[in-house]
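Extended Data, panel c. Modelled sequence:
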Amino acid sequence: MIGWRERFLYAGSIAAMQGFVDEARVHAKGGDGGAGAVSFRREAHVNRGGPDGGDGGSGGSVWLVASRKTASLLAFKDHPHRRGADGGHGSGAKRHGPRGEDLFVQVPEGTVVASLGGGDAHSTDGYRRGEVLADLMVEGDRFLAAKGGHGGMGNARFLSNSRRAPAFAEQGEQGEERWLQLELKLMADVALIGFPNSGKSTLISRLSAARPKIADYPFTTLQPHLGVVRIGDGADEREVVLADIPGLVEGAADGRGLGQRFLRHVERARALVVLVDLAQDRMESPEEQERILTSELARYSSELADLPRIIVGSRVDLATSSSVWPESQISAVTGAGLNSFTYALSGLVQDAAQRGPQRRSTVVSRPEPEGVRVARLAGKVFVVSGRLAVRAVALSDLTDQDAVRHVQKKLRSLGVERALARAGAKAGDTVRVGPVELTFEPDEGE
């Protein structure tokens, strides 16, 4: 499992954390809209003042916003629920209810948002389970997780020549509600790849302010770390974000040793540094380490295999005098070779930036289907779907005869009766529109 005892660095600042979580679920619920008011003007010297009920305010929406101030999905581990504020109810004198405030939920840069499908009966998702909805890669990117419900109209809205004193108003619409899967993929220029206990954590702690746990046993690092390496001076200074990926073993592409969970964080890197351990107590030879590591990268993703990379021999201070390694060699403990290594990092990143496309965020926007759809269930039960039709029924006060007539007129104008007739509905059949069950009573002309 992912550990709960490290520190995390981003953009040169260290944020002490209780742990690092790179997968989480969030339940987003938009605020409910406020109800419209039923009110009539009652004022001295004003005869038949008429309806003056105000509208309810719309509920607040829930937004996921990428922020570099947040480094982990830890906040969602034990508290997954996020809800927008409800809208206020309308009141007399045509006073509208206040709109509910939107809720902006911060997530780390590099967060991928996916659908969990129809999680419950009130879900308005409509996406396939696992379908990616957003990839929030840059500070400020945001995704609408759950939209707030519309406020209901007050009775002043229903005044007409034929309805001089409407005694009904709309209820507020319920906000959208759904479960989402969040997955963090670290944003780094260069990812350090190597076997467990090959000196990756020592290297990143030597080059940056990151302080991962370091010990003389394998799998010391159980979570990724980011460090910022500053290279050059003055106007020529540039920063390279380095990712310390927990050690990989043979079979990592198949999930061995949590390999797939760690390899996910390599996907966003522009380039790779493959660390080959030169210490004499390492069982695998340097050539064998290089073969296994590059093979696991290629098996996990062909794109990873094509990334620019450099091969570096690490822990040269523990190598035997007779060992020969043709590539560059470094020691994070003694500092040997680190100066040339950092400039090689800079050149590697510059070359990768020129070769590869710029990072871009994506947000999937699926337009809501228009019109009315009718599905026939077993027996004489028909289900009507379509946002406008469901909203017309769900928001109305069906205990008031004027409101019922208004709903019937609204459904007729939307083509619901014609659609039901085409689907084979007969008088007396049950019709479900949202949470409400109605009895079908067509006009004689239908």
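Confidence is low (pLDDT under 50) at residues 1-19, 119-124, 212-222, 252-259. This feature is highlighted in the accompanying rendering.
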